[in-house]
Amino acid sequence: MTALQLCKGTLALILAFGSISCGFGFVIVFGDSGFFSVCDYGAVGDGVTDDTGAFLEAWQATCSTQFENPTMIIPDNYTFLVHQLTFSGPCNAKKITFLVLGNINAPTSPRAWTDLDPSSWMTFHGIDQLRVSGFGTIDGQGSKWWNQSCRYHPHLEGCTSLAPTAMKFLSCSASSLNNIKLVNSPQTHVLIRGCRFFDIGNLLIEAPGTSPNTDGIHIQSSQHVSIANAVIGTGDDCISIGDYTSNIYVSSVTCGPGHGVSIGSLGRRGNFVQVENIHVSNVQFKHTTNGARIKTWQVGKGYVRRITFEHLKFDSVKNPIIIDQNYCSIRGACKEMPTGVHISNVAYVGLSGTSSTDVAINLNCSRSVACTRIVLESIELMSANMDRQVTSSCLNAHGNAIGVVRPDPCLQS
Ligand SMILES: *[C@@H]1O[C@H](CO)[C@@H](O)[C@H](O)[C@H]1NC(C)=O
Ligand SMILES: *[C@@H]1O[C@H](CO)[C@@H](O)[C@H](O)[C@H]1NC(C)=O
Ligand SMILES: *[C@@H]1O[C@H](CO)[C@@H](O)[C@H](O)[C@H]1NC(C)=O
Q1: Contact at 8 Å (CB) between 161 and 212?
Q2: Ligand 3: distance of its center to the CA of 325 in Å?
Q3: Is residue 152 part of a domain?
Q4: Which of 121, 148, 160, 316 is deepest in the core (most CB within 10 A)?
Q5: Is 83 exposed, middle or buried (0-12, 13-18, 19+ CB in 10 A)?
Q6: What Pfam family is a match for this entry (predicted)?
Q7: Is 147 in the pocket of ligand 2 (CB under 6 A)?
Q8: Residue ranges lining ligand 1, Cβ < 6 Å
Q9: What is the tens place of the pLDDT at every residue in 50-90?
Q10: How many beta carbons lie within 10 A of that of residue 193, not counting itself?
Q11: How many domains does the chain have?
Q12: In this structure, is residue 319 part of a structural domain?
């Protein structure tokens, strides 16, 4: 049974391989897998026509299909303009692949979000066993948002503090995001929240170093998340790990420009922080503000524990190793409190490279809740500036140093 047909016609089934495009849209059935191209649901892909409705219809078909492992396809060589939308589960299909081969662009104007939630662009909600993959590019077209952001234009009338996250994955399990390229999100590029077992791999994320709040990947209220082989350069954290997270593995990442890999900020609302088993290894930081950072608010309670930063390389990083337990959005504006998030069992192992400031290790713990069981092992940091020496600074930081060549470690026992 073989049938081919044009994009605008009804669906056809074919039992063959071939090019998948908007000119020749079709559904392929192969074993228990159905392929659903957005072009079969009216997408045009000229970068101008609004293809949102077609994406939603293709999703409905994919989600509700009888096939166990369907694939929704965004075909190669087309650019689809897509407004805010949510791909919702639960689905009838067991394992869905969302294959991005072409490009998906957001509207360029923030006006497209009038009367809509400004924090989201594309959201995947309540879907298990979702696989998002492909070689396509997802472009958040953020520059108009950046130009009106209150962070960089505080005196601009009508400035905005909240801008869309390009891709949100909410309430999911056993899912993954691979191979795609994400650029110029209005705010955070990828958010993982309320998920268990999520794998991210081979991701490229790019936005200008001057773009406000454009975190690469933010993880919150999630367990068992891994990120491997990512290249991230943005205007904010490459990866930030928020509250209620555990068993997070980050490895083989290149970070820069940006603010580094950050655990926090945590405890902002005086909540009981629970963050543990975070493992960050083989990260290369290039001209970032921070390297390995943990930041907590003094009003917070709870714990951050069993954290490992291993095999990190720094190339002219402002704060290669930093714990800031007195974090405040305006430095010095938060008054000293008797509370704090307890930071313990943090190991820094095999760290090398250069610092662009003199203080290469800054463990600034609270006076009331000490940092305990900190391990500094096999560390050699140098100044990025000729003729300067790097130093370390510790406040109420307790633990052991083994084989730290430079700077002199300042931990208390
Ligand atoms: C996309 O365009 C490239 C270059 O023009 C071409 O080689 C490729 O076959 C096209 N792919 C499809 C699916 O049409
Ligand atoms: C953002 O502002 C810059 C500087 O004023 C300007 O050159 C650029 O065109 C603006 N971008 C957009 C998309 O409005
Ligand atoms: C430590 O934190 C306090 C409170 O934010 C700040 O005033 C001080 O400058 C910090 N010390 C270092 C060495 O960064």
Answers
A1: no
A2: 9
A3: no
A4: 121
A5: middle
A6: Glyco_hydro_28
A7: yes
A8: 19, 21, 76-77
A9: 999 999 999 999 999 999 999 999 999 999 999 999 999 99
A10: 18
A11: 1
A12: yes
